[in-house]
Design brief:
rod-shaped; single chain
């Protein structure tokens, strides 16, 4: 068996002996970026640079044959190591207008864009209250719904702008986080004017 690393070039030489000189064949799937080359002289090479997101264990089998039975078979394991990498996306932002006393609900989508299972802590600042339990644990590329409820204060004056910010932070790497904003502008009270006809009398 041999271990390659994502993003790093690796080489492994396979050798078979016999008379006549055996040819070597490979059975099994290789990660992107890695190839198998038979040289026709009793040797073959696994080589290349494993592509991103190809970490894992690959079960392979080599067969050496020269026309003299039986063929020689060798099971082989290629392990591709990929260092853990955190990533997170939180979207979308929202921007609305609302009257004092209005209760609003906003929905966001959290995505684990890293290459490993990660747990994300949610924090909120502003008028909002999280409706989603925190933390959230997600596998790579998995998503979760994040909801927040914002109650506009009944005494908020028209024109007031409040920005509620939600932050999702990776526990794998605290330097990795994503934010989303819910911007609420308070509407002023509606004013109605009644115009009465003016009647002039001459006495």
């Amino acid at each position: 068996s041999v271990t390659f690393t994502v993003g790093v070039e690796g080489t492994f030489i396979v050798t078979a002996t016999g008379v006549p000189t055996p040819a070597i064949a490979l059975d099994g799937d290789l990660p992107d970026g890695v190839s198998f080359t038979a040289h026709g002289d009793g040797t073959a090479t696994l080589s290349g640079t494993p592509a991103a997101s190809t970490g894992g264990v690959y079960a392979l089998a080599f067969t050496a044959s020269n026309g003299v039975l039986p063929d020689a078979n060798q099971m082989f394991t290629l392990t591709v190591y990929q260092s853990p990498q955190a990533g997170v996306v939180l979207r979308p932002d929202h921007m609305v207008q609302a009257q004092p006393g209005k209760v609003l609900t906003f929905t966001h989508v959290l995505t684990n864009t890293g290459n490993i299972i990660d747990t994300f802590d949610l924090n909120i600042a502003g008028w909002g209250v999280l409706l989603t339990s925190t933390p959230l644990t997600l596998t790579p590329d998995a998503t979760a719904t994040v909801q927040v409820e914002i109650a506009v204060p009944v005494d908020a004056t028209g024109g007031t702008v409040n920005t509620t910010v939600i932050t999702a932070t990776s526990r794998l790497d605290s330097a990795v986080f994503a934010t989303v904003q819910n911007v609420v502008t308070v509407q002023g009270e509606d004013h109605f004017f009644v115009f009465l006809p003016l009647v002039l009398r001459n006495n």
